[in-house]
Predict the 3D structure of the following.
Amino acid sequence: MSEYKAIGTPTPVLDGRDKITGQVQYATDIKIPGMLHGRLVTSPHAHATITSINAAAALALPGVVRVLTAADLPDIPPKSRNKLFLARGRVIFAGQPVALVLAETAAAAQDGAEQVWVEYEPQPAVITIAEALAPGAPLVWPGGKPGASGEAGAHGADVGDDDEEGEDRVSGPNIANGFVMKRGDIAAGFAEADVIVERTFTTSMVHQSYLEPMTHVAVPDAYGEGITIYASTQAPFYAREQVADVLGVPETAVRIIPTLPGGAFGGKFFLYESFVALAARAVGRPVSLSLTRSEEMLATNPAPAAEMHVKLGAKRDGTFVALQGDIKVDTGCFPSYHGVAGWLLGSYYQTPNLESRYTEVFTHKVSPAAYRAPGAPQATFALESVVDEMAQQLGIGPVELRLKNASKPGDPLADGKLWPVMGMTEVLQAAQSHPLYQHRAEAQAKGRGVGVAIGGWPGGTEPTSAQAQLHRDGTLHVHIGSVDLTGTPAGFTLIAAETFGVSPDKVRIVYGDTSNMPYAGATGGSKITYMVGPSIIKACEDARQQVLAIAAEEMEADPADMEIVDGRVQVKGVPDKALGLGELAKKTMDFGAKYAPVVGNGRHANTEGAPGFCAQIAEVEVDRETGEVTVHRLVAIQDVGQVINPLTLEGQMQGGVMQGLGWALYEGMAFDEYGTPLTGSWVDYTVPHFTHAVPDFEMVFVEVPAPHGPFGAKGAGEPPIIATAAAVANAIAAATDGRVTQLPMTAPRVLAALMG
């Protein structure tokens, strides 16, 4: 029996009914009197000089009010994509905004955009990593590369610092960032190895494919310097900081009102907020910019393509003695923050000799950003494929080989730091005992293959705060500053109820905007439950102590002898001597009240992440004539620290695995030799749909409590996507003896692997 009353209770997402009945207000539903609608004019070229922009025909159309170009906006040296507002003199990726048409209606804005004539002089472009690194290649930034955006930490992906132990920097033409993490003697390690496996892998650029396109509405103050922005964003406080910096105003002059995102997955951290604010400032009217699906595919924040070379050496008994990895990420036209790929590659397993190299390479393509565990699916696909092949060559079970070499708490990471508490061993043990793994030979006898892979995420941290208020009706309202992406209010309700001592139906989770809600960091990096949860606990405990003190004074008892039971405060063991919470709250709010209102405050900061690990087992069947892959069964095992709300955890795991299947089998943005995108819509870009769902999908929760997590819980959003592609690839290899090294593993690629 559980030690908790509320924690672990299956609780549906609180706004589910509103969503399915269309009652939720999204950013596209925002209508402000006098609002202008924006439409982008984008470049068809990957690299070109802009020789002229003629907007006369557009401005002659009814309803078109203004056409903005770079000349109308401040010339701010861009440190990241979110400050590259409109192309100034040249374009550096196909899809880059060149002008913004503002009109009274969305239709007029679209008509106007089609009548803006831009003349270009195409320039040589580098489209692939190999082209960018070739001697004498055109430079994406001939005047010097821009700085990093500083967003890595918000995703829990901040690795590769200059002062890391055993780390060297990587630099050169068209190189944005890079590092090498080393320990031991890599050459001596491979000389000692009895078996060496070495392969090269590639992955494609993948878009988050959220349902709701990016939308922002900026409303300038009629008087003064202030501005209000309605934004489909994961990071309202970060957006406020960035907009204030661009406008040159205090942060308190900027109000970000986050609307419920219709999907995000890391892609709606921050991009067009400052741009829309500048546009509204330029015309002195509210401006709405809602991207089309094509603009989403061309000019937002996809996950990067990568090339990875992995070499692994082991002794006959399975002991890893050397691991070498070289990861090159296509970072497009700006630096990104996927260095966690190189860090994870050298941290999953223990080996005395390590060299993990990570390089971000500039190309003339859209720059990537976060997509659910940025960098981890790519590195894991490569490493786990090689580990699986090593197990096959050694004749050791794939889980057994991983268990033999798995990192444990206190073991060194690739950067020389130490693993905190984490559950890699525990999820592998759960996989080892699972019937699908135990009976994998039976699946192979039926012509199917069973593959295993692990995946891990370091877990992000960011300061948070919360406030708990007791109301006259006896409900506890908990105010927080994070954004709801994954149904977290349901879990927060359980945390608050457990702490304060009431049933979950007496708790309300309240969101606001940057002008009135407690501070919290960005929603992402598997850190919201982990970091906001403790603030909620502290706020509710503070409120609880206030309630007990008031009740004790009213009943002439000691606060230590008081308890909250079923919405009433009573002397322990004496239910007849009780005071209802609503009645108590009135005593703090009535005219001439003796007591101050019950308002509990909580704040939390912690620099140690809570790594989350998963193990996945996939059973697949491969059509040897066509190369078509069918995933019949998938088991997702994940260390969640402590189950707070099993329903939202299941939703996270189901969604993450489905996205992982997209990476594995279907999704990939394509470009021609000139850098022109070939996958500009969902007609060309394949996203998995319900017919691709795994018919037999099982989830297993493992609980290795996080020391600093609420009731031991840790974030769960990132891990589910990480291991899926590797597990499917290993299952394909088990079924066919063919090793597919490119994502997505389309039928032609699988067929090519079968043919050797």
